Each structure stands twice: as structure tokens, then as C-alpha cells.
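Now for a sample.
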Amino acid sequence: YIFCLPRQLFDVPYSTVVSDRNGELLGARIADDEQWRFPALDTLPTKYSTCVIAFEDRSFRYHWGVNPLAIGRAIVQNIKEKRIVSGGSTISMQVIRLSRKNKRHIWEKAVESILATRLEFRYSKNKILALYASHAPFGGNVVGLEAAAWRYFGHSPDELSWAEAATLAVLPNAPAKIHISKNQQKLLEKRNRLLKYLYENQKINATDYELALDENLPSQIQPLPQIAPHLVSRFYVEKRGENCRTTIDKSLQIRVENLLQHWNNELILSDIRNIAAVVIDVANNEIVAYCGNVNYQSANNGNQVDCAIAERSTGSILKPFLYCAMLQEGEILPKTLQPDIPLSINGYAPKNFNLQYEGAVHADEAVARSLNVPLVAMLRKYSVPKFYNFLKTNKIAQLPHSSDYYGLSLILGGAEAKLLDVTNAYANMARTLLGNESAACRFLLNEKQKTVATTFNAAAVWNVFEAIKEVKRPDEIDWRDITTMQRLAWKTGTSFGFRDAWAVGVTPRYAVGVWVGNANGEGKPNLVGARTAGPIMFDIFNILPTAAWFQMPENQFVETEICHKSGHLKGRFCPLIDTVLVLPAALQSEVCPYHISINLTPDGRYRVAADCLDSGEAVETSWFVLPPAWALYYMKQHIDYRPIPQFIAGCDKNENQMQFVYPVESNSIVRLPRQLDGSQGEITFELAHVRASSTVFWHIDGDFSGTTSDFHKFTVFLVEGKHSIVVVDDAGNALSCVVNVVK
């Protein structure tokens, strides 16, 4: 007798049920046996408990599993009617019958009676009642109270009215014969008889009774909620048959979904069909809103693809991470000048989005403005393998290939990442600044928070956020002009071919990530991060609570002097100095190389070499000198930039006056262009000269080939193989390089 009751009463598949942080239903997926059977309840609402006990087993609270009086009464009724009209089963016996699923006969009834008494020793009355309610059939493929409440009335059992509770109490009595779509009149009569009994026995008052009688029966099956459907589908795979209580805030989730739908209606006009967004609570590292895509019910445009966890080309969204890595290792300072000139490195020729060049820009400005060329130069200095390891260590991107596979394109979208991972990485940077441990964002409330070992430095993150909070907002509003406006550190990204648009932003309370594009990878001209994903991200932040900005990390900076012009550590000849706070590692960075001491003639028109000082009076001064290729573009944007004066005749020295713009360096790979007709095109080399008006003589493979003046671009036809290029200016200065021409 002790061991006669199986340890697991019900061996049945359950529906996958996903609820928000407050237990409100987001969605569900049907059980493997095609039944809507929600996982078993632990407790029941009072209204339903009252109704089902009154209808099924009025002595339920007092018997030990079997009610002899009920069995005797059933026998008398069956003899009188000459057919079975009552079984005399208690709720406990019905729980056993539902678990065994055997045919009904006298011997089975006896077994059920014995097992029912054993059931009473194992569980409390409330637990037995919950087991019954969770496994009773309610008609069609609806099993259990919770599934029935949602399918018939569109809400949870806790919200049942007296009429609804009474309806569900009588439905399991004969669900195949009496149902909302079959014999509704008989169902109504049974419900009303139960309500009358409740009223007469003072279970409900007169007002509740009258209101309950006036309620109509449901006329059709109600659809289940379809909130966060991609998340529900995810748990259907990962947590099949479980009741998953997530960290999602249902109210916020609905607002974000409505917002994305509004934007989708607008972007679909440009044939941009898919949007994904995630919102992370930074302090708790919890996902509070998750939209894997829009229009889940439609599979025509890849809407059922969960783009929040799809690997997509990153565009520029990784640039702040490179900036962070270089800052915390002392490779650069926030204002260090970076080259912004045409680059071609072994055939890889990145270009800025606006196809313009400025010669040199400060590092923080390059990140804020998302300039491609300076960031490629920064990555080249930092090294691809180091940045590759940084991304993997900090769980920013999975990067299944080797670092050589990605090369310098790693910083411009050559790698793929998931929106969820990237947004979580920005959240972890914020957590570092708040003094919290980095963690993997979680979806389930009962899931233990998983910490991750990141390498983010709080001081470096502060500098990163200070840079990217200056990113120009889509609404053209300057947040500094409005004191109540939320400060926001954010970054956009656009992948090659306009296939992916990104925007990720972070405050001390939330991190928001948005991806816009087409799930099939189709590019569109308007698919630009700042124009599509950026405005959506700001709309999401507008419905989130605001927070005070981050506090500057204490005791993590040291004070030092830097060159006002170049942003490097102060050099001997820097005329203007700024005193700033930097990371300790930055004290080992390069001293300003661009300010040099020169000697000028008294009128300031010419330079004189040091060994010519005896020939006349000279004036020593500091001069800001950029490499010739940088200066070529820099002076177009900075009218105050003055080229270094020429040496006075007879008092000069041999000094580099020229620099190749293309190719960037010797031994570069140069690819042969093709014309539209398939024929081989010509190659154009470019040179920067301190004095553009100088005449430059070009020699290819030892042969004189031509001259240039003012604009030093030289076009020539070359065959495959190695070629030497030598240029000589009219002052006798020479420069050479070797190129490897390939198809």
C-alpha cells in the first residue's frame, strides 16, 4: 500500500508557457501530443475552487479519498435509472483516473478507490485539487484549467468571474457532449444550476448571482497572446514543456513592439522589412524587452527569423571597443591625432562614408564621427590579433575564423556578431563604470546570474562614453542645450553594401540595441544606421525612465600635460599645453612628434640649417609639421595650417619633403583595374609634397616617365610583377618605393 502510488502521477507532455517577470502570459506553444496542456498549477483561484468542489465533490474537504455515501447514492441512482448516471467518484479518485487513463469498470473503480486513499497521504487537499484542475479535459484539445481559461475567456484563471469559474467547473463532466460549440443550452443550464446552488448556500451574494446569470457563454476559442513570439519560440526549443518566468516587462515589451511595428510600416516603403531590438536593465543585467523581429505571423519576409541572435555584419558598431582597448593599454590618448588620408594596404582600400579625407583627426572625434580610415590606421597600430582576442575575451563576437581571415576589415564590418551580444557588451561597459561585475544577460528570473571575465577598464570606458555621447543625434538636437534631456552614449553601424543598420546606446539604467535590415541579407540604399536604426533606438529610450549620468571613476586617472594641437604627451617644442586626466598606462605613450624647433631668417620667410647660423642672424621657433600626405588633406580643412618654410638658398639640409599617398608604403600590392570592356586599365600613383607647386620627375623601373606639378598624380600602364618607382623634385629631393602589381 505504501508503494502502490507511482512517484510521478502524470507522465504527459506539457505546453511551453512563457510569462513575464510578474507572471503575466506572453505566449505558449502546444504540447508534443497536440494538446493545450499548461504545466501543472500549484494553487487555484478561490472562485474556481469553490465552484469545482460544489459541483464535483461537496465533501472533498472531509473525506480520505473515498466517500462511501456518494458511492451508495450513485448505486441507488444507477439502479433506478437502469443505466450509469453517476460514478460516485471523489476529486481524489478522478485524479487517479486521469493519471491512469484506463477503461472504466468496477475493478478499475476499486483500484482507483485504494489509490485515492493513498493519494490523500501524499498530498494536501489543495495540491490534489490543483492536480485535478491541471489535468481535467475541458473539450477539444484543451486540457487543464489554465489552458481553458486562456482559450475560452482570454485571460488567466486568477481573473475568472463567478460565471466563468462555474462554466469551467462543469465542463470536464462531459466535455465530449457538452461544449461551448456543442449543446450550449445544456452547458448554460448546468452552469446556472451550479450558480443557484452557490447562491442558496451563501457562497456568493445576490448581486454576484444576478451578474453571473447575465453573462453569456463564450462563442469561440480565443487566441493566446503573441507577445515576444521569438522569445517564446526560443524557449520552446530550449525549455520545452516548462513554465518559463522571464525577466521581460510585459508593458514595456508591448510598447516596444508597437513602436517597431510603426517603424516597420514606414520602412517597408523602402523595401526594408525586418527590425530587431533588445532592452537590457544594466544594473540587474536582465532582458526587459526582446523583439527578435516584426510581423511574426507572416513568414513572407523572413519575419520569423530571430534577428536579435542572428550573426550579422557589424559595420562600425565595434569601433568604440577598439578605442577602449587602445586607451587602457596606453597606445593612444583621447586627443591623439590619427591619419585620415587615402589608404591602400595590400589591396585593401577603406574609405570614409562621405568619401572625404581630413588629413588628421583626434582619436575621440574619429570614433564619434565613425571615420573609417583613422580607425583602420588605429587597428593596424594595435594589431588585428590583439583586437581579435579582445573581442572574443569580452564576449562581443564569436569570430569562428582566425584573425588572419578578417584582417583590417575586422573594424569595418568584416566580422559578424549578434545584436544581443553587442548590446550586452555595451551594458557590461556600463556595469564596469558602475563598479559592478560583468555578466551574461539573463532571460529567466530564477536563473542564476552568470558572471563573465571581461577586460574593460572603468577609466577607459569613461573616455569611450565621453566620446560617443557626442555622436550627432538624428533629431539634430544638442543635448547640452536642454538640461532635462537624457545623456546617452551611443554608436551606429552600417555594413558594406547597406545590408545591416545598427544602433546601440547606453545609460546608467538601460542598454538598447536595434538592428534594421532584411533577413535575407538584401541591401538597400537607405539602410544606414544613423537614418534607420538610430531614430528607432532614440524612440525606445524616450519610453524608458531616465537616469543621472555616470560618475567619473575615482583614483583611476593621473594628471599630465599634453600637446594642445596633436593630443600627444607634451613634447619639448609644443607651444600650447593642456593639463588633463589620463590613464596611468598613457604616460608611456608617444611624445608629440609633430612640433619641431626650426631656425628662420629674421623676416620669417626662410629656414636656415643649424650649421648656417654663423652666416647671419636667425630666429628659433616651434613649428607644427605633419607628414606630407597628412598635410595635403589637413590644410584643406584647417586654414590656419602653415606649411614649413623652404630653406634659404645655400643654407639647407637634406630633409624628406615628399610622401607617397598611393601606394601607402613600399612593397605594397597594387591590383590592376579592369575597364568596362574587360581590357586592362591604368594605375594612378599619388604623391604629397610639402610645396605642392614643386615639379616632380617620375621614373618607372629606371626610365624617365613624366613630370607633375601642383597635383602630383601620375597615371601609367604596368604589367604584372614588381616595379620600382622613383620621384625626384626640382630641389633634388628623392623618394622611392617598390610595388607588386597583380590582377
About this structure: The chain has a mean pLDDT of 90. The CA atoms of residues 427 and 602 lie 59 Å apart. The radius of gyration is 38 Å. Residues 250-267 form the longest helix (18 residues).
